[in-house]
């Protein structure tokens, strides 16, 4: 689709299909709210709503009249296309400190992102009062949208960090590949199962119904090291074939691995990423996540090494039961010699904007 509905019970960009080359470009950014009062925050939320509603549906910008700076940058030409843009807004734990009197209304599980044992945290790339996820069909659409949103919110929020992402079309088929060369996103829950795992659970404040927890993990990939690893070692780290994406006990990408038939891990190692991430037991079925990750590329580091990796993006209804449980099982997995998480954050994606007179966080504020 070239345009996704803006209004609804849930925000777009979460269960909106990304694998297979749809919305191949993205931007993840975090902001801090600079306004001092709740009234300032309400005004900010209304402005963000109005801009996101316009940008995701497209159309001619307003005519502000002679002598004014133009309403639009014209980066996308005079008639702004929707171009598959989704805008997904989240709030971080820091928004619920005492600045805006919201402490009592914090989502039940929201907290600053946990630092895990293999992390190399860089403060400049972490946390934030707000998260914005933009996804679209072209990179100029992403640029245009973030520029428009920043322009209209000047003085009300300031950027903290920002990173652009991209993903691939199916090559040669199936799910897009990540920068380690493996198909990524294969075992994502879909349909009713995805909805059951992602949207707010009992125990959340009433205003939060229809939202979800967003996990952003910026994970550097040491691609030069990775390219020196043999194919069988690479495949054992994931538990899947690099060419087809099939589990090591199967033939096709969508074959379901049978861990129970291989209790010693002779075929799919016990330490493989898929086995640790999803052991496929009755007790672990409610720990599954919705992933919607992108690649990033930041050019070169100071040593001339490629600075690229993975914008790990996951959604879940309970950060502890789902993301943190899975992440803790992955601590020490063989893959960590080749990847380095350095940033990101936990955010609560606000419920959807219901209709043309509603706005983000209206039930919270
Ligand atoms: C599966 C790559 C980090 C959770 C996979 C697969 C790949 C992959 C190639 C197999 C294909 C698929 O089902 O999508 C990576 C890379 C990472 C990374 C390159 C870091 C750079 C993480 C993290 C988590 C995670 C941080 C969560 C804490 C999962 C889950 C699955 C999975 C839940 C599905 C397992 C299944 O149901 O079979 N990942 N992953 N991954 N990954 Fe990751």
From TrEMBL:
Q: Can you say where in the cell this protein is located?
A: Cell envelope
Residue ranges for the region (Disordered) are 240-259
Arranged from A to Z, the UniProt key words for this protein are:
Heme, Iron, Lyase, Metal-binding, Oxidoreductase, Peroxidase, Signal
Q: Which residues form the Dyp-type peroxidase N-terminal domain?
A: 11-167
What domain of life does the native source organism fall in? Bacteria
Q: Looking at the Swiss-Prot or TrEMBL record, what is one Pfam family this protein matches?
A: Dyp_perox_N
Per its Swiss-Prot or TrEMBL entry, what cofactor is needed?
A: heme b
Q: Which InterPro entries match?
A: Dimeric_a/b-barrel, Dyp_perox_C, Dyp_perox_N, Dyp_peroxidase, EfeB/EfeN, TAT_signal
* Molecular function GO terms recorded: lyase activity
Q: Does the keyword GTP-binding apply?
A: no
Q: Which reaction does it catalyse?
A: heme b + 2 H(+) = protoporphyrin IX + Fe(2+)
Q: What does the record give as EC number?
A: 1.11.1.-
Query: Residue ranges of the Dyp-type peroxidase C-terminal domain?
Result: 175-353
User: What does the entry's cofactor note say about binding and number?
Assistant: Binds 1 heme b (iron(II)-protoporphyrin IX) group non-covalently per subunit.
- Family indicated by similarity: Belongs to the DyP-type peroxidase family.
Q: Which PANTHER family match?
A: DEFERROCHELATASE (PTHR30521:SF4), DEFERROCHELATASE/PEROXIDASE (PTHR30521)
Xref: NCBIfam families: Dyp_perox_fam (TIGR01413), tat_substr_1 (TIGR01412)
The role this protein plays is:
Involved in the recovery of exogenous heme iron. Extracts iron from heme while preserving the protoporphyrin ring intact.
Protein's name according to its UniProt entry: Deferrochelatase
Q: What is the lineage of its organism?
A: Bacteria, Bacillati, Actinomycetota, Actinomycetes, Catenulisporales
